[in-house]
Design a protein that fits this description.
This protein has one domain. It is mainly alpha-helical.
Length: 51
Amino acid sequence: MRPELGYVRLSENASVRGALGLPVERNLFFKADRPLSRCADQAQRLESIRA
């Protein structure tokens, strides 16, 4: 599976549950340290998403 960028509605995320039945949480304090395009380029090279 290759990383992919796309759109998601927050209302769709609200309905997702993980393995333990816990909902997805948003990090309201997230600050990007690089452009999304750079993250996407790196993910494509590595064929995975890394923090």
